[in-house]
Amino acid sequence: MSFPMADYVTSFGIATACCVVFLTYYAYSWYKFKRDMPRFPGICLPIIGNNFKNHYRNQGGELELLEDQRNLKSDAFSLYGFGITQIIVTDYKLVNEIFVTNGVKSSHRPAFPEIASEVPVTRGVAAASGRLWQLHRKETLIAFRKLGLGFSSLETQTSLEASAMLEYLSNCQNRVSIDLMKNIFATASSNMIYQLCFGKRFDYGDQRFVKILKDIETFLGYGQFDIRYFIPKWICQLPLIYSKNFEDTRNALINIKNFVVEEMSAYDSEFDDETIVGILLKKQKTMPDEFTNDDIISSCMDYILAGTDTTSVTMTWVVHFLNNHPDSQQKVKNEVNSVLGGRKPSYEDINQMPILHAFILESLRFGSTAATSLLHKLTTDIKTSRGYIFPKNAVILAVYFIN
To answer: CB neighbours of 20 closer than 8 A, spacing ≥ 6?
Structure first.
């Protein structure tokens, strides 16, 4: 059976017209999508997005990208790929407008489909959203206050950990460096967190402990706005997108989760009133749906990751600045010797050391203790005072150190 040429031409013409209309509409939508958002570095193509080389292949690409934006004095810029929109905000006033003025609209967390099947990344304190986040934040603050965080009741544990750190440091002899100091501070910080969570600490040479600290460093050392976090695992395995660095980071997070699971399995119930895990497990009996094992595991991971890095980085900055400012170092040393007179410090002594207190605060101001915010997800469009439109479901990250 044959078709008349006229019918074929008509069908072909209709199909062509439909394709032209579709492509025109898509091109206009793509133009409009980009027009009202912060600038897109590089060439931004439909589907695969922009900044392909740095964004997908190179772990150091994020630092190069941030350096370029700093040179351009950018207040925000956009990244896009596989339907995921990310906006990196680098200006303080704009950060305040998004996270404070529009706090309700920007308080949710994004999903992480690539690792969600193996790690409870949408639970706990840092990754939960809405009512679940409010509940976990409230109970976590209550638990920490009950255990004395920020009060003198942790003074004994802090003093013992400081003594262990100094003993280990004294055995290092002349091999001390900034990197070594950061590792030692990370060990001490982690031990304090583990004591709060599980009621135990590790020796500084414990190989299992050393390995988990390395995993923490690996995970925290990788950039937060890699698109692979937000796209399905099978896409991450494609040749042009696969990254060994990202795979190592993913495995490090899984190792941290497994470590927490092992510690919970070996948990001694005699510490129920003295540990975070004990308090949350008691809460689980009255609110089993809100405090599942995954919730508690994820919360412990949050405490370990957040507490280890921020504390160790702060102490490393303080040592770095003391080393580079010998005059200030001598003033701090004289004040400490004058107040303590050779005895161990107490919680109240900081009130008698204004120079040391001021030096620590100045180190926090000058150094980047936490370089970025946590990731946020918008629940609705936000139109900013600078004319940008941040679209619904966009992932927002504040980078504090760039400007």
So the answer is: none
Give the three-class secondary structure for 1.
coil
Q: Which residues sit opposite 372 in a β-bridge?
A: 399
3-state helix, strand, coil in the chain (%, to 5): 60, 5, 35
Q: Residue 204 has which token pair?
A: 């500084």
Q: Decide the pairing of beta strands 84-89 and 395-398.
A: parallel
pTM exceeds 0.90 for this model:
no
Structure-block tokens of residue 322? 């003391």
Q: Enter the tokens of residue 279.
A: 């308090």
Q: For the segment 169-215, what is each residue's pLDDT rounded down to a tens digit?
A: 888 766 677 777 888 888 898 998 888 888 888 888 888 888 998 99
> Residue 337 CB: number of other CB atoms within 10 A?
10
What average pLDDT does the chain have?
A: 81
- Helices within 103-171 (DSSP H only): 130-146, 155-170
Q: What is the mean pLDDT of residues 71-78?
A: 80
Mean pLDDT on 301-318: 87
Distance CA 173, CA 176 (A): 7
The token pair at 372 is 């970025």
Contact 282, 272 (CB under 8 A): yes
Q: Which helix (H) or strand (E) holds 76?
A: strand 76-81
152 CA to centre of own chain: 29
Q: Which tokens is 14 given?
A: 């209709």
